[in-house]
TrEMBL record:
GO biological process: phospholipid biosynthetic process
GO MF annotations in UniProt: oxidoreductase activity, acting on the CH-CH group of donors, NAD or NADP as acceptor
Keywords, alphabetical: FAD, Flavoprotein, Lipid biosynthesis, Lipid metabolism, Oxidoreductase, Phospholipid biosynthesis, Phospholipid metabolism
Top-level taxon of the source organism: Archaea
Pfam family, one: FAD_oxidored
Domain Digeranylgeranylglycerophospholipid reductase catalytic residue range list: 199-264
Protein name: Geranylgeranyl reductase family protein
Gene3D superfamilies (UniProt xref): FAD/NAD(P)-binding domain
Organism: Candidatus Nitrosotalea okcheonensis
Amino acid sequence: MEKTKAKPQLKMLHDKNLSTQMAKNYNYDVLVVGGGPAGLSAAWGAAKKGLSVAVLERDEAIGQNVRTSGVTWIKEAKSFGIPSECYNEISNYAFYSPNNYVIKKSETAQAAVLDVRKTYQFLAYQAASEGADIFLRTNVTDVIKNEKEKLSGVKATSLKEELVFNSKLVIDASGFYSVVGRSLGIALPWKRFGAGAEYEAYVDKVSPDTWHLMVGSQYSPAGYAWVFPLGKNKVRIGVGVGKPNSQADASKLLIELLEKRPKPLDDLGRIVPVEFHYGLIPNEGLRESTIDDNLIMVGDSAGQANPLVLEGIRYAIEFGRAAGKIGGESVVRGDASRESLKSYEETMKKAIGSKIAAAVKVQYRWLNLSDQEWDKEIEIIGELSAEEFLDFIKADFGMTSMLKLAAHHPKLALRQLFQIIKNTGKDSEA
Ligand SMILES: Cc1cc2nc3c(=O)[nH]c(=O)nc-3n(C[C@H](O)[C@H](O)[C@H](O)COP(=O)(O)OP(=O)(O)OC[C@H]3O[C@@H](n4cnc5c(N)ncnc54)[C@H](O)[C@@H]3O)c2cc1C
């Protein structure tokens, strides 16, 4: 298919809000709403098919407002081609409860703390190099439909100017707010979600290859806190709160944490915040439907995050690329109907549906644990090998190994924990 560069045209809009104004009008094969990891990866995937693609991002720069702690996994980062200068490698994983502590060590580094801005901009340049356009400061406000009442583009505002973008396919990668899905009325607001507040900060000293996860009421009444190093004097310190379980304000908890400095913050010397981050993450599992006629939802917009440790970047990239590829192929075939997009949803659900469902169940258990119960839970987790521990945190519940743990581990408590995962696996396979 020939790549047609969009040229703005002026168009009179027959809309009650915009009726008196002339709107700039753009035509693209594929529109991607949101320039986070899902959107940039989707744009790359669709542009590689030779289609004209635009990413619409409301912020002034890609990665400008960091809404994530940026922990991911080296294996996946490498498979996406993310250069190693975009991340700090982690090989020790410390877990604290009020009166307990475990540390797991892997022989080689498995986890990575991303330089989020650098990584997202890497993805942006990758998409642009395949021909995708990026519109910054462009806030998508509504959808437009064709004469058959099918989705045919979006309305946006940029610098107080009204814009209209027409397309054959829209990819909703707008994150937590699912702006396109919600405008169409096919996606409801999330009822269960996590709210996280974080400082990127200078510290006098930190071990650059060790992450710290902290649980219990002194950190968060329903959730956890973290210290993720980016280097020997640079960390992300944050607190997450599960909603609606707790009404606590994550930003206030973060300030308290820096004042009270419970372990391991007491070991960091001076902590000097340099940047504040805040974000929301869905915590209900996958949306039942992530496609519609001329629409694919991807990333947080579709609920594709492992809620156990608020981790969604690798899935956003993986399924962003898949959305761009499969959606792009549908456009090339001249049919982006729901039926034509089905393989995106089926492949994605097969790959992560049961993992995310099991992670949601473990997370619900975690949100209700008392301090004493957390002390025991940490002991149970301490029984896992480093490899099992990492699979568990990643929600990479390979059914065979989890079935083994659920059935044969000598400790009853560990068998019970893995029964949750095993039963979810059965549910979702049924
Ligand atoms: C506190 C916190 C900590 C986290 N820590 C981790 C972690 O350590 N590791 C990990 O893997 N994941 C983590 N996550 C989750 C991770 O950030 C998300 O899963 C991931 O960012 C999802 O990517 P996305 O592209 O779908 O959405 P986002 O990254 O949210 O990107 C959406 C983009 O859409 C834009 N947008 C939104 N509305 C509009 C609009 N109307 N018009 C135009 N543009 C719009 C936004 O500006 C944004 O750039 C964390 C989340 C939170 C909240």
